[in-house]
Q: What sequence folds into this?
C-alpha cells in the first residue's frame, strides 16, 4: 500500500472570510489580517523561539471546505477565463489530492493570548477556521528564485474594477467600529473582481454578495465599476 501519514491541525486561522466567494486567489494580493491560533500541544512559546526574527512565514493548511467534493485531474484556472483546462498539479487549485495548501504571509507579531501562542499575519487567502498543519519561516535565499518562469500565471492579477460605495453603504460603514478597515478591505477585494470569469463580459444587473466578518456585503458591477450597495452587520 502507498505510504500514508495522518495530519493533525496544529492551529486554526481566523480571517474575515466566512465563505469562499470573494477570497483573494493567492496570498499577498490583499492586505488582510489573520490570526493563527495554535492548538494545545503546539501552542507553547518555545515552539516559536526565533521565529519573531522572520518577516514572512509559510503556512501549510488543509482546504477543508473542498474535501467532500474530492479532487479533479484537470481544473480550469480562473485566470485563464475559466475555459481552459490544466493538470491539477500545474495549478494551485484547492481540488487536489490531499487538499494541501501553501501560503506565504507576512508575520506581524507573535502574541500570547491566555498562555497560547497566536501568530498575527497579513496577506491571507484563507477561509476563517482553516486548519493549519505546519508553520515554517520563509527563506529568501532559498524560496525566492530570480528569473523563475510561471507559465500561465506569469503576472500578478490586475486590478480590474473601480470600487464606489452607495450612500447607504457609506452610512452603514460609518456605524461600524471596524468600518474604516472594512471599507478598505472591500475596496481591495472587489477591485480584483471575484466574479467567475464567464460572467465578466456579460452585462447584467445581478447582485453579488459576500460575508466579511459579521457583515453581508452586496454589490453590482457595470462598466468596470463595482458599486457597493449595502454593508449589513449582524449575521
Ligand atoms: N495560496 C494557497 C491557496 C491558493 S487557492 C495555495 O497556493 O495553496 C486560494 C483559494 O482557496 C481562495 O480563493 C479560496 O476560494 C480557497 N480557499 C481558501 N481557504 C479554503 C479552505 N479552507 N477550504 C477550501 N477552499 C479554501
A:
Amino acid at each position: 500500500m502507498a505510504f500514508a501519514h495522518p495530519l493533525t491541525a496544529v492551529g486554526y486561522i481566523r480571517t474575515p472570510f466566512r465563505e469562499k466567494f470573494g477570497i483573494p486567489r493567492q496570498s499577498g494580493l490583499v492586505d488582510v489580517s489573520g490570526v493563527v491560533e495554535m492548538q494545545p500541544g503546539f501552542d507553547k512559546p518555545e515552539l516559536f523561539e526565533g521565529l519573531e526574527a522572520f518577516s514572512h512565514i509559510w503556512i501549510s493548511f488543509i482546504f477543508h471546505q473542498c474535501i467532500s467534493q474530492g479532487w479533479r485531474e484537470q481544473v480550469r484556472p480562473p485566470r485563464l477565463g475559466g475555459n481552459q483546462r490544466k493538470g491539477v498539479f500545474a495549478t494551485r487549485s484547492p481540488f487536489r489530492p490531499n487538499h494541501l495548501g501553501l501560503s506565504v504571509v507576512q508575520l506581524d507579531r507573535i502574541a500570547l493570548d491566555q498562555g497560547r501562542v497566536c501568530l498575527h499575519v497579513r496577506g491571507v487567502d484563507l477561509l476563517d477556521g482553516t486548519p493549519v498543519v505546519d508553520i515554517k519561516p520563509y527563506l529568501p535565499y532559498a524560496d525566492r528564485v530570480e528569473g523563475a518562469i510561471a507559465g500561465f500565471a506569469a503576472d500578478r492579477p490586475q486590478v480590474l474594477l473601480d470600487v464606489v460605495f452607495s450612500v447607504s453603504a457609506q452610512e452603514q460603514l460609518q456605524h461600524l467600529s471596524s468600518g474604516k478597515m472594512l471599507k478598505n478591505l472591500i475596496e481591495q477585494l472587489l477591485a480584483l473582481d471575484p466574479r467567475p470569469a464567464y460572467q465578466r463580459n456579460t452585462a447584467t444587473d445581478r447582485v453579488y454578495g459576500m460575508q466579511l466578518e459579521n457583515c453581508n456585503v452586496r454589490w453590482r458591477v457595470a462598466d468596470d465599476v463595482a458599486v457597493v450597495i449595502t454593508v449589513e452587520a449582524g449575521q
DSSP finds three helices and twelve strands in the chain.
